[in-house]
Write a structure and sequence with these properties.
Order of helices and strands of chain B: HEEEEHEHHHH
CATH class of the largest domain in chain A: Alpha Beta
Strand content of chain A: 15-25%
CATH topology of chain B: Pyruvate-ferredoxin Oxidoreductase, domain 3
Number of helices of chain B: 6
Strand order of the largest sheet of chain A: 3-2-4-5-7-6-12
Radius of gyration of chain A: 22 Å
CATH architecture of chain B: 3-Layer(aba) Sandwich
Low-confidence stretches of chain B: none
Number of domains of chain B: 1
Structural class of chain A: alpha/beta
Distance between the termini of chain A: 34 Å
Strand content of chain B: 5-15%
CATH superfamily of the largest domain in chain A: Thiamin diphosphate (ThDP)-binding fold, Pyr/PP domains
Number of strands of chain B: 5
Helix content of chain B: 25-40%
Largest sheet of chain A: 7 strands, mixed
Mean pLDDT of chain A: 96
Distance between the termini of chain B: 25 Å
Oligomer: heterodimer
Number of domains of chain A: 3
CATH architecture of the largest domain in chain A: 3-Layer(aba) Sandwich
Helix content of chain A: 40-55%
Radius of gyration of chain B: 15 Å
CATH class of chain B: Alpha Beta
Shape of chain B: globular
Number of helices of chain A: 16
Structural class of chain B: alpha/beta
CATH topology of the largest domain in chain A: Rossmann fold
Number of strands of chain A: 15
Chain lengths: ~425, ~170
C-alpha cells in the first residue's frame, strides 16, 4: 500500500515483514527511529516470535547479534556514526564468522568535533570489514533494500549493511510503497543457517587459525563478496518479479548513454544531481549520473563498462580520506585504470552541509572550463580556512581549531539554514 | 514545526500530490529555532536540498521575526502566515507585507485556538487549517485527515477542531 511515511518507519515496517527473530539495539543517540518502530511493532504483535533485546552499548548490540545469528536466528540491528565505530571489533567478527546479520546504518558524520548530521564517513570507516554495503537513494529503496538484504545475506552467509542517509532519508516523509506480508513471504524463504550452534550437535565457530590457513580463510571471505556481484543482480530480478519494482542491483544509470561527463555518487544526493542533470541537458550539455547501490562489493567491471563513453567523470562523495583525498574516487579510478578517462574528486556535504543545485551547476561549469584542482571541496570557505592556517602557524598556543572557526563564523551561525 | 511539515505532506499526499517533508535540524529540542520544509509536486520529488526560495512561509513563533532573517528567499508573489494575534503593522511588518497580494498574507492566533481546543500551546493543527484557507493548495478535509492520522482519538478530535476554527477565522475575514 502506498503510504506517506517517515523513512525510519517505512524501514521498520519492511523489517517486520522479514520475520526477524532477534532485534538488538542500543536505543540512544546515534540511533534512528527504526529500532523504536521495530520495538513498537513487536509490542503490538505485528512481529511474531521475535525478541527485542535492549542492550547497553553498540558493542553489545552487535555482539548479541553475533550470538543470536550463530544460534540460527534471523537477526537485525541498526546504528550510525560513533555507534558503528564503537562496535567496530564486532563488525569484523560478524563478517569473519560469515553470519548473515542485517544492519541499517543511518549515515552520519564522525566526531570530533561533535556533529550529528549526515555524511558517509561512518560506513566508509568499516568498508573493508567484509560486510556487503548497499546504499539507498530514496526511502523506497531503503525499505526495498532491507527486504533484499536478508535474502542476500542468507544466500551467501555474509552480513549486509544497508546504508541510508541520516536525517535526509531517515527523518524525511515521502511516499513509499509498503509491501504486504504475502509478497515478502513469497520473496524471502525462512532462514536456513549454513552453520548453527546447536547443543545436540555441538561444534565450534570462530576457531583460532594460524598462518598455515589464515590466507586461505581471508581469500574465501574476499571471494564471497565477489560472488555477491553476481547474486545482487539475481536478487534484484527476483524482487522485481514479485514486487514489480526496480530496486537494488549494483548501480543505476541516469541519462548516461550519450553523456560526455558522468557524475558517480552514492545515496540520496543522486536525486539532486538528477535534477541538475536535467537542467543542464535542457541547455544541451551531455551529462549523466551513475548511483552506486552496491559499494561493497565494488562493481569494478560493470562501472568500467558503463563509463566507457564518458570523457570526464566527477566523483561526488560525502567522505574524505584525511591526508589522501577521495575514498569513492579512488575506487572509481581503479575501475577506470588505463582508460585515460579523467576522474575529478569532489568532496561535498560533510557534516550535513547541504549539496544544492546551485553549487552543482557551478561545479559542472568549473569542471567544463578545467578550473578545479583535485580533490575539490564543494562550497568550502577558503578564506576562513586560510586565516586559520595562518593563525595556527603563527602561534604555538593558537587554541582548538573547531572553536576558532565557530568564533569566526559566529554571525553567520545565527542564520537558521 | 517538524510535525506540521509532516502533517502537511500527508494532507497533500491524500490529495494525490507527491510530497516531501523534512527538518533542517536533527537535534530538535524545546526552545531552539527549528526549520522544517515541505515540498509539493505533481511528479516525483528527487531534490534533497533545503527549501531556500519558499512559495509559502509559516512562522510558528513570532518572537523569531526580528532575530533571524526569516524572509530571505521568500518571493513577494508567495504566501505568508504568522502565528500571532497581532497585526502585521503591530509586528513592524506593515511595509514589508504591502509587497504581497493582500489575500496571500494572513495572521492567525493559532496558539490561542490550540489552548482553547487542545488545552496546550501546540499551534500546528491550527496553523495548517489556516494554511489551507490562505493558500487553497490543500483542503481542510485533507488537513483534518492528516491530523487524525498523527493524533488518534480525542487528541485528534481536539486538534481537528482547532484546525477548523483557524480555517473558518480566515475564510470569514
Amino acid at each position: 500500500m502506498l503510504e506517506q511515511i517517515e523513512g525510519s518507519q517505512a524501514v521498520a515496517k519492511a523489517i517486520a515483514f522479514c520475520r526477524p527473530e532477534v532485534i538488538c539495539a542500543y536505543p540512544i543517540t546515534p540511533q534512528t527511529h527504526i529500532v523504536e518502530g521495530c520495538a513498537k511493532l513487536i509490542r503490538e504483535g505485528a512481529i511474531q516470535n521475535c525478541e527485542f533485546i535492549n542492550v547497553e552499548s553498540e558493542f553489545a548490540a552487535l555482539s548479541v547479534a553475533i550470538g543470536s545469528s550463530a544460534a540460527g536466528a534471523r537477526t537485525y540491528t541498526a546504528t550510525a556514526s560513533q555507534g558503528l565505530l564503537f562496535m567496530a571489533e564486532a563488525v569484523y567478527n560478524a563478517a569473519g564468522l560469515g553470519l548473515p546479520i542485517v544492519m541499517t546504518i543511518g549515515n552520519r558524520a564522525i566526531g570530533a568535533p561533535i556533529n550529528i548530521w549526515n555524511d558517509h564517513r561512518d560506513s566508509m570507516a568499516l568498508r573493508d570489514a567484509g560486510w556487503i554495503q548497499l546504499h539507498a537513494e530514496t526511502n523506497q529503496a531503503a525499505a526495498d533494500l532491507h527486504i533484499q538484504a536478508f535474502k542476500l545475506a542468507e544466500r551467501l552467509s555474509a552480513p549486509v549493511m544497508v546504508c541510508m542517509d541520516g536525517f535526509v532519508l531517515t527523518h524525511a516523509y515521502e511516499r513509499v510503497e509498503i509491501p504486504d506480508q504475502a509478497q515478502v513471504d513469497a520473496f524471502l524463504p525462512p532462514y536456513q543457517p549454513r552453520q548453527v550452534l546447536d547443543p545436540s550437535d555441538p561444534y565450534s565457530i570462530g576457531a583460532m587459525v594460524g598462518p598455515e590457513a589464515f590466507m586461505e580463510v581471508r581469500y574465501l571471505a574476499h571471494d564471497k563478496l565477489l560472488q555477491a556481484l553476481g547474486v545482487i543482480p539475481e536478487i534484484q530480478q527476483e524482487f522485481k518479479e514479485i514486487f514489480g519494482r526496480e530496486s537494488g542491483g549494483l548501480f543505476h544509470s541516469y541519462r548516461v548513454e550519450d553523456a560526455e561527463t558522468v557524475v558517480v555518487t552514492l545515496g540520496s544526493v543522486a536525486g539532486t544531481v538528477k535534477d541538475t542533470v536535467d537542467e543542464l541537458r535542457e541547455d544541451g550539455a551531455r551529462v549523466g549520473v551513475i548511483t552506486l547501490c552496491s559499494y561493497r562489493p565494488f562493481p569494478l567491471d560493470g562501472l568500467r563498462y558503463a563509463l566507457q563513453g564518458a570523457a570526464k567523470v566527477i566523483v561526488l562523495e560525502k567522505s574524505l580520506a584525511l591526508g589522501f583525498g577521495g575514498v569513492l574516487a579512488s575506487d572509481v579510478r581503479m575501475a577506470l585504470q588505463d582508460t585515460g578517462t579523467h576522474v575529478h574528486t569532489v568532496i561535498a556535504g560533510l557534516g550535513g552541509r547541504p549539496i544544492t543545485r546551485k553549487s552543482l551547476l557551478r561545479l559542472f561549469g568549473r569542471v567544463e572550463r578545467g578550473e578545479i584542482k583535485d580533490p575539490h571541496f564543494l562550497d568550502l570557505d577558503l578564506d576562513i580556512v586560510r586565516r586559520e592556517i595562518d593563525n595556527q602557524r603563527g602561534q604555538i598556543t593558537a587554541g582548538p581549531i573547531a572553536e576558532n572557526i565557530l568564533r569566526e563564523i559566529g554571525p553567520r551561525a545565527a542564520k537558521v539554514v | 514545526m517538524v510535525s506540521a511539515a509532516e502533517m502537511l505532506s500527508v494532507a497533500a499526499f491524500l490529495e494525490g500530490y507527491h510530497a516531501q517533508a523534512f527538518p533542517s535540524f536533527g537535534s530538535e529540542r524545546m526552545g531552539a529555532p527549528v526549520v522544517a520544509f515541505c515540498r509539493l509536486d505533481n511528479k516525483e520529488i528527487r531534490l534533497r536540498e533545503p527549501v531556500m526560495t519558499p512559495d509559502a512561509l509559516i512562522v510558528q513563533d513570532p518572537t523569531l521575526l526580528h532575530q533571524v532573517d526569516l524572509f530571505e528567499g521568500l518571493d513577494t508573489r508567495g504566501y505568508l502566515l504568522v502565528n500571532t494575534r497581532r497585526s502585521y503593522r503591530d509586528l513592524g511588518l506593515g511595509d514589508y507585507v504591502k509587497k504581497f497580494p493582500p489575500h496571500h498574507i494572513s495572521t492567525v492566533a493559532a496558539t490561542e485556538w490550540a489552548l482553547q481546543y487542545v488545552g496546550r500551546a501546540l499551534p500546528n493543527a491550527a496553523l495548517l487549517g489556516a494554511f489551507a484557507a490562505v493558500t487553497r493548495r490543500v483542503t481542510l478535509e485533507s488537513v483534518v485527515a492528516a491530523i487524525r492520522q498523527k493524533f488518534p482519538g480525542k487528541l485528534g478530535d481536539d486538534n481537528a477542531a482547532a484546525a477548523a476554527k483557524a480555517y473558518d477565522s480566515i475564510r470569514t475575514n
